[in-house]
Design brief:
The protein is elongated. It has one domain. The protein has helices at about 1-10, 15-20, 25-35, 40-60. The protein is mainly alpha-helical. Helix 1 (about 1-10) runs parallel beside helix 4 and helix 3 runs antiparallel to helix 4. One of its GO terms (biological process) is protein secretion. This is RNA polymerase II assembly factor Rtp1 C-terminal domain-containing protein.
């Protein structure tokens, strides 16, 4: 189980979220369930890491970095 969770957390990038968009909610729920109910500390740790990485990727997609710039025009 630990290896599966680690391999799940590694490919979480922008392209993976596009491909896995149909199962992201199920993946999130499964990871949350493992964190709450599993007795193996390593498995819980890997699930937490995968959740954090998934959270970072989703926040990046939902809230893209804003580029603030101000243009000054002299006439």
């Amino acid at each position: 189980r630990c290896g599966e969770l680690l391999s799940t957390s590694l490919p979480c990038c922008n392209k993976a979220t596009q491909v896995l968009s149909d199962v992201l909610l199920d993946l999130y729920r499964a990871l949350k369930w493992v964190v709450r109910s599993d007795t193996d500390d390593v498995t819980v740790l890997h699930s937490q890491l995968a959740l954090e990485e998934l959270d970072d990727v989703m926040r990046g997609l939902i809230f893209p970095a804003q580029k603030l710039e101000k243009r000054v025009v002299l006439q």
